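Aim 2 progress update. The chain analyzed this quarter is reproduced below.
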Amino acid sequence: MLFSLFSVFLTQALPLPLNPFRYMWFVFKTFHYQGLQHWNTIG
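Predicted structure tokens:
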């Protein structure tokens, strides 16, 4: 939870070209969403 809030702060604090965390956060959300959809399909 704390890490998520910190990540949101990082994504909002710096512009996109200067913030690699924003790219990682986008990738994390994308894979996490796909993972949930995958498990929901199996379940």
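The helical segments are 2-13, 20-42. The radius of gyration is 13 Å. These observations will guide the mutagenesis experiments scheduled for the next reporting period.
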